[in-house]
Amino acid sequence: MIFKLLYKLTYDKDGNIYPSLQFLFFIAIGFIILLIGTAVGFGLISAIYGLKTMMAITTLDTTIPHFIDAIWILQLAGTSLPLLLTPIFFAYVIVKDPADYIKPSFRISWQLPVLVFGISLLSFPLIEFLSNLNQKMVLPPFLQWMQTAQDNALKITNMMLQMKNIWSMIFNIVFIGLLTAIAEEFMFRGCLQTILQRWTKNTHVAIWLTAFLFSAFHMEFFGFLPRLMLGATFGYLVAWSGSIWPAVLAHFINNASDVIVTYLSQHNLISIKADDAHVFNNTWYIFSLIIFLLLFWVYRSIALKKPVPQ
Prior knowledge:
Blueprint: H1 2-10, H2 19-49, H3 51-59, H4 67-94, H5 98-101, H6 111-135, H7 144-160, H8 166-200, H9 203-217, H10 224-241, H11 245-266, H12 282-303
């Protein structure tokens, strides 16, 4: 009797877990895997570099030897891999529907990746505009801790992005550009957006809620608006195409561009820096918005047609 009641409270008439419970399970699984990954990361750091280095990570003592190497271990074991494993475990084990919750299908028109490339390039002026707008916002006193957290995160990121040669740039492109793009898109536009779409029964609401959570997840108040825009863009790329890969490509282009620009700037090959706030002007903002929306409309028109057969 109890098992029947639990089943009715968990599954709908079609045998699917209720979306509200899916959301709770997904968050709980993500939290558990994140804790395990973090523990593994600290364990590896302690085993390889010693307890002193591990403690230095918790206090952000950047003067300790092997600090950056340890940060990379913690980043991969405690963040990147948990973000990747959570949606895979949820899709394959909990809901047993990876086709819908990860959307790994490559059955898309060849035109879509080309359009994604153009959309991504034209998003750069819009990102800059929203970043500048975001910088003008003032945190209330009770949220000033977010400024400190963001400053610390930026400090560590800048250290991780110190690239001595082209091989270190390629390493960052692979791990910051590609792995992060795959993990975060599986997590957000794959599982989370699907759960919220089934819960709200509204694709637009699901896309923007996911974009909000995606931006909030990064814990960077002064980068919230551009990430919100990027999250919504990635969401529509997936919703219209039925595939996760256009969003992965767009995410990768955005991340890899920052890495490449940073590398070129560090070696004085270009005068522009990745965090420059005034590369574009108002004319560029308007022009890029118009073409961005045009390409977006073309993408939607092509994506909503019948998928290309394999």
